[in-house]
Automatic annotation (TrEMBL):
Annotated organism of origin: Aspergillus campestris (strain IBT 28561)
Protein name: Uncharacterized protein
Highest taxon above the source species: Eukaryota
Length: 134
């Protein structure tokens, strides 16, 4: 397996509830500022250095490597962003703005929303191209 097809890929951040057909991964990922992380219900939440939506039987490290190599959101309607922190990836709903902020040292957070960031220490990021799914 060289890359993972949908519904596997990079997980989403959102300020409210996960969209229909998704599950919340926040209890594993340590989100901040009221955000939740989500993966499609057909996948397993992997929260090692980001949120990745993986097959049930796959090790987190293998899944993360495959997701990064064939980078795409776990849902084709989401937009993908790079966080600016350790090359981390995250996805938002297509109409939302993505941003990241620093907490100190190499620690930080990402967020998504229709209005963009609310603090001057948060940085808007541009959506990036996603790999084609096989």
């Amino acid at each position: 397996m060289d890359v993972l097809d949908l519904p596997y890929g990079v997980g989403m951040r959102i300020q409210t509830n996960c969209p229909i057909g998704s599950q919340e991964c926040s209890n594993k990922s340590g989100t901040v500022n009221g955000f939740v992380s989500c993966c499609p219900r057909e996948s397993t939440c992997s929260t090692s250095n980001g949120v990745y939506c993986c097959p049930d039987e796959m090790e987190e490290s293998e899944c993360r490597e495959l997701v990064i190599d064939g980078a795409h959101c776990a849902n084709e309607t989401w937009s993908m962003f790079a966080s600016g922190l350790n090359g981390g990836l995250f996805c938002c709903e297509a109409q939302d703005i993505g941003w990241w902020g620093k907490l100190g040292g190499n620690n930080g957070y990402v967020g998504c929303g229709p209005d963009g960031p609310s603090a001057s220490s948060e940085y808007i990021v541009t959506p990036m191209a996603q790999s084609e799914c096989p």
